[in-house]
Amino acid sequence: MPAHSLNELISFLDGLPEPRIVMDTDYRIVAANAAYVREFGGGQPLAGRKCYQVSHHFDVPCDQAGESCPLKLSLEGGEPQRVLHLHHTPRGEEHVAVETTPIRDDQGRITHLVETMRVVRQASSRAAAQGLVGRSPAFVGMLEKILRVAPSDAAVLLLGETGTGKELVARAIHEASAREDGPFVAVDCAGMTETLFESELFGYEKGAFTGAMARKQGLVEAAAGGTLFLDEIGELPLALQVKLLRLLETGTYRRVGGLDWLPADFRLVTATHRDLRAMVQAETFRRDLYFRINTFPIHAPALHERTEDIPLLAASLLERVDRKAGRRFSPTALAWLSERRFAGNIRELRNLIERATLLADGEIIDQPHLTELADDLPPLARPAADAFSVGEVVALDDLERSYLAWAKARPGLDMAGLAARLGVSQRTLYRKLQALPPA
Ligand SMILES: Nc1ncnc2c1ncn2[C@@H]1O[C@H](COP(=O)(O)OP(=O)(O)OP(=O)(O)O)[C@@H](O)[C@H]1O
Residue 168: CB within 6 Å of ligand 1? Predict the structure, then answer.
């Protein structure tokens, strides 16, 4: 790119409000705009330094350090790329959404890349007094999905065990959406009766039933311009599923006792800890409603899928529940927490921490404060290092081959013993082993 075009680009970027840098194809920062210098510069000179040194304090590009590198992806694919990274900033590490856009010369060759950074406000990688916190790969994967779907108006279905933070995720989607200035209205569908559902959701007119002394606004109306979060959607009885489907299909509703169909204006987020697909098979959840609410599913990981987040979560939850400020956990307490299996996930962790704060008198919350009332909390079941495991769904033939190769390598089993354990004849075992690819 000629120098004058590059200078024009740099001065154009300088006027933009979002932090942006221009890089050459060798990861070197050529220029940074004023917003970048302000948010990420930390008073250090930037031009001439490599982006991975500034953002990650790495000595090698991200892709060689086990992270995805948007610059490399853009160079390879020739297209803009977006990834979520943990970046060093003058405030500490933060989740940053990074977008790269390739810049081409007259011959169409990529000569530079513009990188745009947006600090993610909806989640923290450091202990925080509110909102989502986490930095494990499972958490970052979920955050990536939240940020992708939030700007659209697509219906999101949050799936995950109880206490995994689905309501917080629903709020994060709302806050990252164009509706963030509108209301966020949460409705618990568990225990909803037919009459309650209709009058709660749709409101009622004066005189609609005994006790309806005045017109009452429903939650659908309260959510106008914002997000309606239906929690425990799997608990909704079939008769109410029909009513919800009608609302979603027509975008209109009628107050109880009213005549007019009123327009609804909300973004729908639903959540459940149930297996809705199995409920559809069992005909306890309507298939058409399932498809309507499941435009974009997001899995909220269970705590045992993100145990590396436990110290960070524990510190954050302590800030939230402790009546005395500034206390902390001892390293043994944190190690003990990280080794437990919490069936109730973050909610159970939070309750345990709250109990411990009541038992501890000093500045430090120690392991005995945790174990005193929770000595029955089971340890985390870690798969044995040599256990057989399959990380994804594979064809049954492939599964059998991998399993046989693993079983054959077990010490202490001869062919006869192995055949007996597998429940097949030795002849069959030989035949199957011969079909295995060479080790
Ligand atoms: N990533 C997180 N960071 C910090 N706190 C969290 C996080 N996830 C959940 N929490 C806290 O854990 C508790 C349970 O979260 P929440 O109520 O959102 O779970 P849920 O999945 O909606 O549960 P249920 O399915 O039972 O309704 C809340 O106190 C919430 O603030």
Answer: yes
* CATH number for position 182: 3.40.50.300
Which CATH number do you get for residue 360? 1.10.8.60
At 126 the three-state DSSP class reads coil
| Residues 21 and 81 placed together within one structural domain of the fold | yes
Is 430 inside a domain boundary?
yes
pLDDT tens digits, one per residue of 117-159: 999 999 999 999 899 999 999 999 999 999 999 999 999 999 9
How many angstroms does the Cα of residue 332 sit away from the middle of ligand 1?
25
Report pTM.
Answer: 0.82
pLDDT tens by residue, 310-356: 999 999 999 999 988 889 999 999 999 999 999 999 999 999 999 99
Q: Going by C-beta distance under 8 Å and a sequence separation of 6 or more, which residues neighbour residue 92?
A: 125, 126
Which residue's CA is the closest to the ligand 1 atom numbered 28? 347
Q: Whose CA is nearest to atom 23 of ligand 1?
A: 163
Q: How far apart are CA 293 and CA 269, in angstroms?
A: 8
Residue in the block written with tokens 């221009």: 22
Contact 231 CB / ligand 1 (< 6 Å)? yes
